[in-house]
Specification:
2 copies of one chain form a homodimer. A two-stranded antiparallel ribbon of chain A has the order 1-2. Chain A has 137 residues and is mostly helical. The longest helix of chain A is centred in the last third of the chain and has 19 residues. The first copy, chain A, contains 6 helices and 2 strands; from the N terminus they run αααββααα. Chain A has 2 domains: 63 residues, Arc Repressor Mutant, subunit A; 65 residues, no CATH class. Chains A and B meet through α1 and α5 of A and α1 and α5 of B. Chain A binds a DNA duplex (30 and 30 nucleotides) through α3.
Chain lengths: 137, 137
DNA sequence: TATTACCCTATCGGAATAGTAGGTTAATAG
DNA sequence: CTATTAACCTACTATTCCGATAGGGTAATA
């Protein structure tokens, strides 16, 4: 399951990317439009700024704006920042690998082999979709 | 992320399916072999029995045995029983649909459209793999 | 009749999620 | 220069869920 944090983060990025002008967008505006708790959204956008997706401007007329070209941001990178691993089991995660403490042998583990397939198909979808792609929809 | 419950359940089913004879397998044996908490595993197997995957025999020489042909059990059905929805967001779940309370319109929601693609690719993988398939590996 | 092994209910600690609260800092407008 | 604006930061909290544990009850076998 996708956490609300990730969901809200993607929706916020989409909202910003859909702006006709490049002027900063206020968190309050996004929060109201997307029905997200204002304070919760703030913490998410701070994280996205620190990750290099967004720039921020303080004071009146301030807000958040995109730094990178939406067409250059695959959804995998956004989700990895907000959600963490994309794989359904740590032992098949490419970026957050962790060995199962119960598993003797990954090669003969039925779950492991199956989840590799799921991971690959998911990565394919999320890798082929950029922020620009999902903004169009 | 896959819960340990689902992971253990799949491993247990695989363990039973890999038995050379059709004699019942004890929970204690599975728990020890797969490094699963015995009591926790019991509760999982009860659920799989109630769902119609397993039969149980009490008393000495008792245990659990497969009722259906492993080749006739797609992984989707097992995961849906143990984990619940396969989709990453309730609003794109086929079997456990729930409307988002924050979303105005699913059609224009970027997350919604993206997660439909993820769901479909995941369903394809899990639907094409049966218990027999992952047992072979 | 004793043993075995599934079955049932209840409980529980810990971690994570989804916020909430309250103040601080920096930029802009007047 | 000052007031306002809006991002920024820290800390706290309520709730939920997960994974597991405890302790016995029930049915089948030897």
């Amino acid at each position: 399951m996708l956490s609300k944090k990730t969901k809200y983060g993607i929706k916020a990025l989409t909202y910003i990317a859909r702006q006709p002008s490049k002027k900063p967008v206020q968190t309050a505006e996004i929060a109201e439009s997307e029905n997200i708790s204002h304070k919760f959204l703030e913490s998410i956008l701070v994280q996205l700024r620190k990750a290099g997706f967004l720039g921020a401007k303080k004071g009146k007329g301030g807000g958040y704006y995109l730094i990178k070209d939406p067409a250059e941001i695959p959804m995998t990178t956004i989700i990895r920042i907000l959600e963490g691993p994309i794989a359904m089991v740590p032992c098949v995660s490419l970026n957050y690998y962790e060995k199962c403490d119960d598993c003797k042998d990954e090669v003969t583990c039925s779950v492991h082999q199956l989840m590799i397939q799921v991971r690959d198909s998911t990565l394919k979808v999320l890798g082929n979709n950029t922020l620009a792609d999902i903004t169009k929809q």
